[in-house]
Amino acid sequence: MNIGESKFDRILANINRNILLHDLSQYVVAMKDGAVLFMSGFLDEDKEVITESAVSVGLTPLSGLNEGQWQLLSFIKRQNP
Q: What is the pTM of this model?
């Protein structure tokens, strides 16, 4: 994935677990402080690993939704003090 030097207020990533995990650090780099990342396209069984990985790169969980086994999670990039 290559999104250049742009910074975004919101990013929506709707793809499978492995690609979400692989690209997560690039999403964070592309987020402005206070931006929200929405990740979907993965199953309930992957929710914990997605959340742990997002927290490990500095994101804070906001909320989640599900439809059957499909999940959507959102995270915020907190402003640096």
A: 0.90
Residue pair 40/70 in contact (Cβ under 8 Å)? The answer is yes
Q: How confident is the model at residue 6 (pLDDT cuts 50, 70, 90)?
A: confident
CA distance 40 to 66: 9
CA atoms of 25 and 56, how far apart (whole Å): 10
- Burial letters for 17-45: b for 16+ Cβ neighbours within 10 Å, e otherwise? beebbebbeebbebbeeebbbbbbebeee
Helix (H) or strand (E) holding 46: none
Cα distance between residue 52 and residue 9, in whole Å: 22
Residue 15 zone, left/alpha/beta (φ > 0; ψ -120 to 50; rest): beta
Residue 79: per-residue pLDDT = 79
Sheet holding 8-14, edge to edge: 8-14, 31-43, 70-77, 59-67
